Amino acid sequence: MPSVRYRILAIFVAVLVGAAACGSESGSQPVVPTPTSPPTPPPPSPSTVPSTDPPVADSAPVTIWPTDATQFRAADPTLFTVEVVRLLNHDSGGFTQGLEVIDGSLYESTGRYGESTLRQIDIDSGEVLWSTPLEQSLFGEGITRLGNTLIQLTWKEETALRWRLSDLTPLEPFAYQGEGWGICSFDDVVITSDGSNVLSHRDPEDFSVVASIPVLLDGQEVSELNELECIDGLVLAHVLGTDSIVVIEPATGDIVATIDATPLNAVVDRPDESGAVLNGIADLGDGSLLLGGKLWPHHVVVRLVAA
Ligand SMILES: [Ca+2]
After folding, report:
1. How far is CA 6 from CA 16, 64, 83, 167, 205, in A?
2. N or C: the chain end with fewer CB closer than 10 Å?
């Protein structure tokens, strides 16, 4: 298993204020935890974007994920970079806050008050197959699968929306304290971020916090942890305001690897606004990841390769 170890890693120091995590909208004080009315069967969406021919990597790099996680060492984190496999059309009006792939279907949570949605997207074309708006008082954040449900966090509303996966009917939400940023889940625990350097481990039955684990890189706190993805017993977390993703051992909070996603800048025509940042990670289950960002015209399927 080839991997390149670097003794010196860039320390991901968060420099952005918390409000930037979810956009600049911060004046609302919504407390309405009621999800939207039940969605109707998915009609074709007007936000569908035309398909394009995706570029494909012209080389055959060695894919080093998924891999044997026991190789990772907090004292000597592995450094990955990304190689672009293909582009996926994305509604450039979508303020991406969370991505999750379930049984070949892509789900996206978008944010901003009055614009937040839950969407189901065709993983091949990027076509929005179904979309439902959230209450105007809710700002959508991360999403994850939990059993037969989807859980969708909200930013400051202390409400985790729950959707029945089979037909996306809204269910009774969970309540929690503090901000909601990213979320991912293993079979027996849900992991959430709130923009700090702490990951909350939650009981999947009632969403209560069962452990709070600070995340460290070489002994230094790494904050602004945002979108999450749980893969192979590890937690991938995007660090807001950077093109970096850290790989965390959830039990200890140790960062055992880092992913440099700056190659995305060469293929994604990002809007010229400060909020249009990387903010989506989804495991495609075949060794590749889908990485996305707020208001991006494309999201990107990548392979992780040794840097
Ligand atoms: Ca995710």
Report:
1. 26, 16, 19, 47, 40
2. N
Domain spanning 56-306: CATH superfamily = TolB, C-terminal domain (2.120.10.30)
CA of 224 relative to ligand 1 center, distance in Å: 16
Q: Which two tokens stand for residue 172?
A: 């009774």
Give the Å distance between the CA of 153 and the centre of ligand 1.
Answer: 12
Side chain identity, residue 142:
G
For the chain, the structural domain boundaries read 56-306
Q: What is the pLDDT of residues 155-208, one digit of tens each?
A: 999 999 999 999 999 999 999 999 999 999 999 999 999 999 999 999 999 999
Query: Ligand 1 centre and the CA of 307: distance in Å?
Result: 23
**Cα gap 9→172, rounded to integer Å:** 44
Q: Which residues pair with 162 in a beta bridge?
A: 151, 171
Strands 78-89 and 170-175: unpaired
Q: How far is the CA of 39 from the centre of ligand 1 (A)?
A: 23
CA of 120 to the centre of ligand 1 (A): 14
